[in-house]
Amino acid sequence: MELPGDQHPQHDVGRSLYAIADVEPLDVDGVRTMEVGTALWLVGFVALLPFYGPLQDSGRLWWLWTCMAGLGLGLFGLEYCRRRRTRAAAPVTDAGGRRRT
Across the chain, where does the E strand assignment appear? Predict the structure, then answer.
């Protein structure tokens, strides 16, 4: 199947024909995703704090501690992503400390 005007590469997959768009991949390092997820765990924890007594009485206090665990793991993941972003932006050097090209 030919497309009029701009020609885009196409791939046949099974009985379907897919046009491939000319777009660059997103430069995603995961930091913003971790920030949003960690903030949501914090909001969940703070939102459940006023209900500590009823949660304890109903045997659902683990909801509160699940939010705390999500917050802690989110902070760990956030630091990991920040370090990974910093390492990716640093110039690559060889064993002697010289910049590689």
Answer: 10-13, 16-19
pLDDT at 6: 58
Contact 81, 29 (CB under 8 A): yes
Cα–Cα–Cα angle for 89, 91, 95, rounded to 5 degrees: 135
* Other beta carbons within 10 Å of 26: 5
Query: What are the tens digits of pLDDT across the range 27-74?
Result: 788 999 999 999 999 999 999 999 999 999 999 999 999 999 999 999
Joined together, the tokens standing for residue 62 give 């683990």
Give the other-Cβ count within 10 Å of 22's Cβ: 7
Measured in whole angstroms, how far is the alpha carbon of residue 18 from the centre of its chain?
28
* pTM of the entire predicted model: 0.68
Residues 6+ apart with CB under 8 A from 80: none
